[in-house]
Amino acid sequence: MSSAEPPSTTAAAPLTPSGDWAAPFGTSPLDATVRLPGSKSLTNRYLVLAALASDTSRLRRPLRSRDTLLMVDALRVLGARITDTPTTDPAGPDWLIEPGPIVGGGAIDCGLAGTVMRFLPAVAALATAPVRFDGDAHARVRPMSALLDALTTLGATVADDGRGTLPFSVHGGSALRGGSVTMDASASSQFVSALLLAGARYPDGITVHHEGGPVPSQPHIAMTVETLRDVGAHVDDAEPNTWRVAPGELNGLDVVVEPDLSNAAPFLAAAAVTGGRVRVPGWPGHTTQAGDAMRTILDAMGAEVHLDRDRLEVCGVGGLHGIDIDLRDAAELTPVVAALAVLADSPTWIRGVAHIRGHETDRLAALSAELSALGGDVTETEDGLHIRPSRLNGGRFRTYADHRMVMAAAVIGLAVPDIVIEDVGTVAKTLPTFTTLWTQMLTAGSSVRV
Questions:
Q1: Is residue 249 annotated as a catalytic residue, yes or no?
Q2: For residue 163, what pLDDT band results from cuts at 50, 70 and 90?
Q3: Handedness of CA 32, 370, 143, 294 (dihedral sign)
Q4: In the chain, what percentage of residues exceed pLDDT 90?
Q5: Domain boundary at 217, 246, 275, which?
Q6: Domain of 74?
Q7: Do residues 27 and 70 both lie within one domain?
Q8: Model pTM?
């Protein structure tokens, strides 16, 4: 970084407080460098594979958030030893993971973490005693039946209340050998990833066939396949809608976790909204993270986007334009894209995201309600949103215990004064330092009114 560059916003920031938060209003173009912690999706996949490996693993620059800490606690319940290892890295200590036999008899708190509630039942099926799963109230309505039915087909015993949601218990033991299973993963790609991550430890491996509508968020399955290959698993994904993992040992990892590109979305969007510049160091040239799509989205909406080996830079130049986009493979970007769309000068259609009705909340209903309450002209469609230009007003933006709703509201608050974000602390699910990073970004090169 040159000496003329504004100071970086780093991850070593105070945690976001709970309660309501007055979103900062941007009064001039910002100019900042934002350093983000590691990817949640990669951190939790690496943690699961490290717990199933044959030797010790080290995760460098992992994300520490509610979702990943829940995963650490859950893997400890299942028998792994996970400890902090001090480093000189300002990002904080590494995680050292020492695998052990998968043990049952415990209870796992999933919180609202989809990766915990979906990935770990397939791991718990390796235990010799039942493992009980439960989570937050919002988690108890998220669909699980496709995975639970698949585990039952493979020989596990699942005890639930018949709704196919939390709470439930899983018991596999010697009855579960793996093999072939057909499932409908059109509600979540996590169902496929769950079986693949554990599959190498099943005596007969795993073959997953998908039958049903399109699988959403396909990049997340590609991420699972790539991380499995990183630990030495033999994965065959050559046939469409079929994935095979051969039985065998998994190697330990020593890996630096990429920055979370989905968490970068609101910061990059801030450049487009304010007509300023935001740089994110360490943006990978090749990645399986779905958040990488934010580069092309911002370009299509009128920003200038430049990626080199050191960083991604986004510059806002002359306003935002509506787009017609299918976000099936990058659905977690929908709230931030909707926030940009409601500030654009022409209509936007967001398509292919019907499945996000089953995310932390019904995101389509939540976005339609909250954007409309601010004066937005928003229609919820069968598989997305139609957003038309309108004049917005301030108001209280409800977040529904959904971290992405917090991020969307913060983006709108840059352009619309007097936005108050309800329960901003819910953003700790994936980015506990969000409000501090956001404020530092604004004050690095622009004035701010809170």
A1: no
A2: confident
A3: negative
A4: 88
A5: 246
A6: 40-246
A7: no
A8: 0.90
